Structure formats: structure tokens, C-alpha cells
Amino acid sequence: MYQGKKGFFITLEGIDGTGKTTQAKLLAGNLKKRGLAVLLTREPGGTLLAERIRTMLLELGEEKPVPLAELLLYAAARAQHVAKIIGPALAAGMVVICERFSDSTLAYQGYGLELDLEEITEINRIAAGGLAPDLTFLFHLETEEVWRRIRQRDPARGGDRIEARGRAFLEKVQQGYLKLAEAAPDRIKVLRCQGKPVQEIQELLLTIALERLGEGGGNG
Ligand code: TMP
Q1: Is the CB of 105 within 6 Å of ligand 1?
Q2: Residue ranges of the domains in the chain?
Q3: Class of CATH domain 8-213
Q4: What pLDDT is recorded for position 159?
Q5: Model confidence pLDDT, tens digit, residues 146-184
Q6: Is 19 in the pocket of ligand 1 (CB under 6 A)?
């Protein structure tokens, strides 16, 4: 249990291009409309320093971090983010919505890059100071559809960082996510997004979030 936590911590997970950013914004807006104090943030990032680490990680520079360095950079960004932003917001009783958190590290650096899962779990625990999400939405789409979206959305990005790792990498990450969800069915809700309109997915998210928050169901 994270010390001093009073609020509610929601994370959105899934491979790139599954619609997390759109849904996170909609969810934040819908919860605010109901009078809740909401903080919307993302990983890697959320503070100036963590955003700088994000740039280092996501831009294709001349020197690529080795997998262990990559893992530790994500962990460093998380430590900063939890200490400066997420922890204080939860202590103040806010609902924190974060795009990606520790599950991303297990899925990408663990299942994707094949670093040791137990070591990652320990590093995640240390980096987050023991903080774990109360509720996680896992966005699931066929990788073929994801690949198409990535290229449509941002051909430059699709053409370098993500493409550099390839579709097979995304497949491994996706399978990893499903294993994580199987192991924690109460916390991780898998959202099958294939063919579903944005609004339908949002209604599902909102209903589940409100139930967990003890605010009752409903949408809109
Ligand atoms: P996104 O915020 O646009 O999804 O990009 C973040 C990228 O960083 C995404 O490809 C997943 C990756 N990532 C990791 O590999 N490990 C992590 O722990 C986190 C938080 C993100």
C-alpha cells in the first residue's frame, strides 16, 4: 500500500495506436463533469525531467540504450513522476488517470525485450515506491489494425522508432499484456476495441470507473 494514498489511481495500457490518449481525455472530462478532481498524466513523462527522459527514450538518437539502460530510464522517469505528481495528487484525494505505468514496463521491456520479469517487478516496485494502480484498462486491438493506425496517424513515427522494432515486437508485447491481465483479472479490465466506436468504448470505461469509484453507473 502506497503511504498517504487517499485518491484513486487509474491506468490505461495497451500497445501503441489503440486509442488510449483519446479515451484518457474523454474519461478525464466525464469524471470532471461529475464533480471529481481529476489529474490526467502520462508515462514516460508527466514532469519536466521525466519528459526529458521521454525524449531521450523515444527519439532515435545516435546511441541506442541497451535494454537494461532503457529499463532503468523508464524507472527513473517513473520515480520522478510518482514523487512529484502522482503521489501528491493521490494524497490530495484526486482521481489520477495515467496513460501507461508499470504494466508497460513488464509488457515492453519484459515480454517484448525479454528482460527478466521478476527483476522488472522489483525495479517497478522500487521506482513507484510501492504504488500500484487501483484499476487498469487494457486496450486490445488486432495488431494489423494497430499497424495501419500508426502509419496513418504519424507516418514519420511509424517509419522509425516503432517500425524499428517491428510488428513481431508489438505482437510479443500484446501477448504479454494479455498474460498480465489473466494474472490480475480484478484490476486489469481488457477492452476489446476492434470495430467499436470511440463513444461506445468510452461508455464502457466510464461505467467501470464509476462503479469502482463508488459513484454508480451511467454515462454521457
Ligand atoms: P506513447 O506514450 O505514445 O504510447 O509512447 C510511449 C512508448 O514508450 C510506447 O512505445 C511504450 C514505451 N514504454 C515502454 O517501453 N516502457 C515503459 O515502461 C513505458 C511507460 C513506455
Answers
A1: yes
A2: 8-213
A3: alpha beta
A4: 53
A5: 888 777 776 665 555 666 788 889 999 999 999 999 999
A6: no
